[in-house]
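FIELD: query
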Amino acid sequence: METSERRWKVPSVFWLPLIICGVLLFVVDVFQSQYTMIPTRLANGELFIDQDSLKGFLIKTPGCRIPYMDPYDHTIKKYIHKEKRPVCNDGVPALFESNLTSVFMLNSSLTNYTDQDISLVNCCYQPFYRDEPTGSDGDNKIKFAEKCIPFNITAEITDEFIKVTCHVNNTVIYNDFFSFVPIKTEKTKFEITPLNILIIGIDAVSRLNFHRQMPRTVEYLKNITAVELLGYNKVGDNTFPNLMPVLTGLSEDQLQDLCWNEDNKKRFDKCPFIWKDFKAKGFATSFGEDSSWMGIFNYMRKGFTQQPTDYMWGAFNRISENQIGNSHNMNVQECVGAREVYKVFLDYIKNFVIKMDSEKIPYFAFYWGASLTHDYLNKPNLGDNDYYNLLKNIKDNGHLNNTVMIVMSDHGIRWGDIRQTYQGRMEERLPFIFMVLPEWYKRQYQDAYNNLLKNSRRLTTPYDLYETLKDLLNPFVLNHDFLQKRYRDNSSRGYSLFNEISQKRTCESADIASHWCTCQQSMEIEKNNTMVVEGATFAVDYMNQQLDGYAQCSNLTLNNITDARIMSHGDHILNGNDVKDYTIVLQTVPGEGIFEVTLRNTVGFNKTNQFEVMGTISRLNLYGKQSSCITDFHLKLYCFCKSLLSN
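FIELD: result
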């Protein structure tokens, strides 16, 4: 004891610098691993990017410079907080669960629904199907089978969608819905086993917010050597104009001209979706989304007449939310019965992948989740463990051995306080996207993989992703000779990510409107600047012109200018002309709508300022029921119904 008392003690002051240094090293290490996880070397070990040369930029090429941004910058840190998980079904657990083939009762839950003996509980399941819409009906019709098939405690299911109902003494005590993956297609013989395509989309999550909110999922993607595209720039305002280029290679305007028009009853059946090409090659096809009432093809749209893919989960989501949806929050039902909607969706994705792989059926699957992330900046964090577990399950069970997996978003959060900051504006235009290739494929097709790595530090778009999916129809031709000889049209707006994209690429050549472009450098200017005031007035006049003919909408007037920036361009835009772009955030009345507009200013021959709206005008705050008197989904952003003025 005497010896230990005499042991030399290091003063606490000595440890303090070491502790601080250790903490800093840990933070830097974690920060770098999460936010700069892009590889710097090609498959052969050659260095293709020097981190030191970037000097504060994520993308630094002659055609595009996108700045590095701190995910926890002081201007946006105050908007980051933890969200509470919804309480589904008022905390009452589900009475039934399911696996790949069956539904079964959970005896432990029975007392929550009845005090009667289990022998008095009578249950049955009723299959249901998507029913084709007719005339001008929306694509939301469901047809139930005439008979509800009785069962006791458990039942093996061969149908795709079922409703379970339980009675006690002729009183309904329980309703639930379950989806399965029956085999619908005949197997096609392939000379070489093709690569499956699995696309998992998460709505409205910027690249930085993905890192902030879902670090475990990001870290796992890093561990399985996913390639993250740092310069993936959106090309339109919301989900639809950013996913149509991915699925068809067309812009919204081109889609309307070609196939989504009155000649086709405003339905999408005749549009050239990429899944049609995979179907023609013998793949099973699957398309699913939750919150399907506001889905990609359903919100203010007519959807399809015939089901577009072999499997279509949206029909299941629509009816289950309508009948047992609960915990309604802003735009979404967060729960169906006792389960969170997004978790039900992820289970379906997992089951589809398992079933296709077990039956050795090649597939193209496109899934889009919105119920968790559409409305709130901080909600993605609630799903971090679940998305991590989904990806880990798929990987650990060998389902990525022959699959290209893309995990992505369409844009960042489009409204709220963070959107009125400069970083929030940039984040909204830069969604996340990761691409995972089979390890054997990367080794065998090194040139294609190396080009993908190089493109992780280039300006990329949804049009490029479409061209990449086209390449994956025939992935085994992408060898060195093919890629070297492939003709590339320099005027094309889309390039396969398996071909190196030019460092000279600009937003203009990539068909990204100035309003959405993140390559520009900008500088804040005075809000009372004469040019800014003139531009803001022009923007409000422009919105009123768009509303011309809609007498039910109020005339808007400029109330306030909250932010103004001038954007700088390279010589590829200027061409010797006096061209300037201004991004202005303004507020209008009535309704206190907050809008962001990018205006291109040119000086006319008479020395007067001429303005042009670049892209579209963004709405930064929610309009709710302000525009309920109008159905045009573009003009809803601007309209304030006159009927509300008297309220």
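FIELD: remark
The chain has 18 helices and 26 strands.
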